[in-house]
Amino acid sequence: xxxxxxxxxxxxxxxxxxxxxxxxxxxxxxxxxxxxxxxxxxxxxxxxxxxxxxxxxxxxxxxxxxxxxxxxxxxxxxxxxxxxxxxxxxxxxxxxxxxxxxxxxxxxxxxxxxxxxxxxxxxxxxxxxxxxxxxxxxxxxxxxxxxxxxxxxxxxxxxxxxxxxxxxxxx
Length: 171
Description:
Elements: E1 11-17, E2 26-33, E3 39-47, E4 51-58, H1 77-94, E5 99-103, H2 116-128, E6 134-139, E7 144-149, H3 154-168
Parallel strand pairs: 4-5
Antiparallel strand pairs: 1-2, 2-3, 3-4, 5-7, 6-7
């Protein structure tokens, strides 16, 4: 049942940066408050061909080199993931050719090949996003969930995706 994914946190758009020397063109930053007044930051990297890569971390861990790997009390994971989905839906409403790349980095205790977050994403994504519109793909060994927009030229899209996979290969 996906009942636990029904609720999301209220999120705020903060700003868009145009970093130099990155493979992505823009970085959109959002925040939301989770349980116990915890602040979360969501980074949405915008790549060519309308590909958005989403990752989130607790603001308290901002300075940690492992910030994307620290799983918070996992009971909140569904609502946090649902919030990230809402952010993508907001972007998708503005641009219906968007594709999503969800970076479900592993927490320390987990093996890189199959992360908890990732198993959750997979179930939820197929529920929210129709396989008629999106080609769902995942790379369990990299904890990467992809939803490729079928309006796009797949060959071109795959080139962009290959670059993203390369970027996250060793993180």
